[in-house]
Design goal:
Layout (H helix, E strand, L loop, with lengths): L6 E8 L3 H13 L4 E4 L8 H4 L19 H4 L11 H15 L5 E2 L4 E7 L4 E6 L4 E9 L21 E4 L15 E5 L3 H10 L5 E6 L6 E2 L7 H20 L18 H14 L3 H4 L9 H16 L5 H7 L15 E2 L2 H4 L5 E5 L5 E4 L3 E4 L4 E3 L2 E4 L7 H5 L3 E2 L6 H4 L33 H21 L2 E6 L1 H15 L29 H14 L1 H4 E5 L1
Parallel strand pairs: 1-2, 1-6, 2-3, 4-17, 7-16, 8-9, 8-16, 9-12, 10-11
Antiparallel strand pairs: 4-5, 5-6, 13-14, 14-15, 18-19
Helix pairs in contact: 1-14, 7-9, 14-16
The structure holds ligand NA7.
């Protein structure tokens, strides 16, 4: 039932995932503010609440894909190095027990409008369910996967079988694919994970690939109580290492360039990184993996050699791991696989090349490509990804002080202060958003820094009785210049990826994230914070 009076708060957060919970903890428990989370779903967990598709699993390892809060990690044991969605769900229940999150969440509350009123220095936020909140600070913490992308194929509604986008997979719906013909459209992390599950059971599996995923071995491990205990003893150190690492990972950062090694040394480095598992290979054994085309090519060639040796069929081999790189290695997010490539050695697992023959429509029986072929199936997983970050923000109805929508303000390009605030949107903070090193880093570690920044700003505002702050246009433009300066040294801008907004037809292609790493991001924030009155237009209460 719609309330008669708006709820008055110090801060309102959108989203109960890692970032929303971090901010709740920082502002409510450390600053004693009155804070609530509005969550579109019916429970906490964020991306791990929504993504219940078969095989969903995280690709950053335990124990550092987690809150770096000691009360949380000291009583928790992971059962796998790369936990699955169910275990992450249980982890969030544990987080709730320790941090009391749920009591300050309003669930099934999808935000449809948010506007700042400069006179009062407050935001009014409304939800579809009829909740209205008035709060000084507004924190959209919605992650980058809040808006699904489904291509506008003809006949989407005509398909007679079961079809779901992976991120809207029905809760507790364990689809039984035995004896069924299944299709997976898309070969990003999600498509790869579903394929690994379904190809083991389904009668026929059709994987629709447009671009190969340059996937790396996950090297999954089961953790018994003894190894979990050992892991707990190392957790504090591991988090410390992550906090000093560019990508928030516990890996040793390389110190030398490609050219400083002999070819034998390079071969040895690549072998060790690949065999080591996880994102080690992506983190690189030399400093210029993502900067220097020659260095990058060497990594691609080694990856292709190892991967090709696992695929028997020459046609599938050339599609899954071509001799010529489809893009520079690591400029599209690689995924971690367990036995993805081996699935294609089965005669009932088919690879459909949608680069050669794009999907044109769905029919009642299945999927039709432009050569007129119809792939008849019973179940389709749409693993076609997301209108990353800006897509989710655009559908929240966030307006600036003049009533102009955020998406309209960004029509000619995204403009932010350190990916945390937007000029014209005072007192609005966006963790895990655009122009920041997340989601290019280990998410929780990157978010931890941003939660600290937000807490420090809000604390200063409370102590100094500041009504509102609005980042100046100059600092936002300087941040954009910094993003471009870093990205233009790298190979990222040349690749069509969701990092660049290039996966969504019609979306402006631009640099959406910061490739300078967590550490540099943190230093830049400290510089801006030190010059508070130059960074922000400050309004005293
Ligand atoms: P991704 O990584 O964006 O993958 C989407 C996949 O869907 C990708 O293989 C796309 O091919 C494919 N796709 C998208 N549109 C089409 C059309 N029209 N036809 C054929 N194929 C298409 O999303 P995920 O959900 O896998 O992962 C997102 C992130 O979530 C992931 O990086 C993790 O951080 C968690 P393309 O590559 O564009 O050629």
């Amino acid at each position: 039932t719609p309330q008669s009076q708006p709820l008055e708060l110090d801060a309102v957060i959108a989203g109960a995932g890692f970032s929303g919970i971090y901010i709740l903890h920082r502002l409510r428990d450390e600053l004693n503010l009155n804070v609530k989370i509005l969550e579109a779903g019916s429970d906490i967990g964020g991306t791990w609440y929504w993504n219940t598709y078969p095989g969903a699993r995280v690709d950053c390892p335990a124990p550092i894909y987690a809150f770096g809060i000691e009360e949380v990690w000291k009583n928790w044991s992971w059962s796998e190095l790369y936990p699955d969605q169910k275990e992450l769900g249980a982890y969030f229940r544990h987080v709730d027990e320790v941090l009391s999150v749920r009591k300050d969440c309003i669930f099934d509350a999808r935000i449809t409008a948010a506007q700042f009123h400069p006179g009062e220095g407050k935001w009014t936020v409304q939800t579809e369910s009829g909740v209205t909140v008035v709060a000084k600070h507004f924190i959209p913490a919605i992650g980058f996967t809040a808006k699904q992308y489904v291509p506008d194929w003809k006949g989407l509604g005509d398909f007679k079988g079961t079809i779901h986008h992976t991120s809207l997979w029905p809760k507790d719906y364990a689809v039984d694919v035995r004896g069924k013909r299944v299709a997976v459209i898309g070969t990003g992390s999600t498509g790869l994970q579903i394929t690994q599950e379904w190809a083991k059971e389904a009668a026929e599996t059709f994987v629709f690939q447009r671009t190969p995923n340059l996937a790396l071995p996950m090297d999954q491990k089961n953790l018994d109580e003894r190894s979990a205990e050992q892991m707990r003893n190392e957790t504090a150190d591991l988090f410390d290492r992550c906090r000093k690492n560019v990508g928030g990972m516990p890996y040793e950062a390389p110190t030398k360039t490609f050219a400083e090694f002999s070819s034998d040394e390079i071969a040895q480095i690549l072998e060790e990184l690949y065999n080591g598992g996880g994102f080690r290979y992506w983190a690189g054994g030399y400093t210029d993996l993502l900067l220097n085309p020659e260095a990058n090519r060497a990594a691609y060639d080694y990856w292709a050699k190892r991967t090709r040796s696992r695929i028997h069929d020459p046609v599938k081999r050339d599609l899954l791991a071509p001799r010529e790189p489809p893009h520079a290695f690591g400029t599209k997010r690689p995924s971690l696989e367990q036995d993805y490539y081996e699935q294609f050695n089965k005669s009932n697992v088919h690879l459909v090349n949608t680069k050669a023959h794009p999907i044109v429509q769905l029919t009642p029986q299945g999927i039709m490509t432009d050569d007129g072929q119809v792939y008849e199936v019973d179940i389709i997983a749409l693993a076609t990804g997301f209108d990353a970050t800006t897509g989710g923000l655009a559908k929240m109805g966030i307006q600036d002080v003049n009533g102009v929508e955020l998406s309209e303000r960004w029509r000619d390009g995204v403009l932010t202060f350190q990916g945390l605030m937007v000029p014209g949107f005072p007192n609005m903070f966006m963790p895990y958003s655009v122009h920041a090193p997340t989601p290019f880093s280990n998410g929780p570690v990157g978010i931890e820094f941003q939660a600290d920044f937000i807490r420090d700003i809000v604390k200063k505002m409370e102590e100094e009785k500041i009504k509102s702050i609005d980042p100046s246009l100059e600092v936002a433009q300087a941040w954009k210049a910094e993003i471009e300066f870093i990205a233009n040294m790298t190979l990222f801008p040349k690749t069509k990826s969701w990092y660049m907004g290039a996966n969504i037809p019609g979306k402006k292609v631009e640099l959406l994230y910061y490739f300078g790493g967590i550490h540099r991001y943190r230093e830049k924030f400290a510089e801006a914070f030190d010059k508070f009155s130059e960074t922000f237009v400050v309004c005293q209460a």
